[in-house]
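Sequence in, structure out.
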Amino acid sequence: MSNVAVFQTPDLLSRQDIEVLRNSKFKNFTDVEIEYASRVSALLQLNPILNQIHFVKRKNKDSTYSVTAQVGIDGFRLSAQRAGGYAGSDDAVFDTESGRPGRASVTVYRMVSGQRCPFVGTARWAEYYPGDTLGARWQKMPFTMLAKCAEALALRKAFPQELAGLRTEEEMEQAEVGPSQAQKLNGTAPSIEPDTSDAEIVEEPKVTQPQIKRLFAIVNSAKTWTQDQMRAHLFEHYGLESTRDLTRSQYEELCDRIESDG
């Protein structure tokens, strides 16, 4: 038992819950970090005991540690349901049904002004597979893992106010090792590997040069988009003046938007 006061989050975690977590999922956390995790859990109303949310400790550049939250896919679905208007989702669609999928797409539906509106998220293996060392689950269940990433992307599109800034464990696994083997093999790895010891960079990686080239190729092949329209969209929807400033989630959303418009 810690000498510091035991924390309690109202209507979510009891004192006994905190002590269970202290000796299991929060085993290497300081009391301050446990209090932070407890408050985040209470704020999001997601329970770490039920695996709705996870907390990961990462080392920073200055050798200190930061605790970051990773929401389970069940936590994403629960948050969407609580927000109101969540109208289910379709099964993931893959570009292949054998071996490893190159990409997965999931459509999530939300009721908007009485209409059931679709929001599509597409995740690509080359950008999420964490490599052979950390990718045991990905090798065992490649379709399931990539589908979770695609569904998380779609849910963030449909429920940006509730889910903006949150990431699933599956989305974050590749951040532990920088560019994955698949990225390197496919030539989509950044020319300079990101410093994954910085929590902010881990949370919101920027697009790579190959991804920017792909974005312009999609625009040039689209019938209803021009490069000027894309730049106007960047400024209007993201407050950005350059494609270099796009985050990966914004890049995915923009690619999907242009491809769906045709």
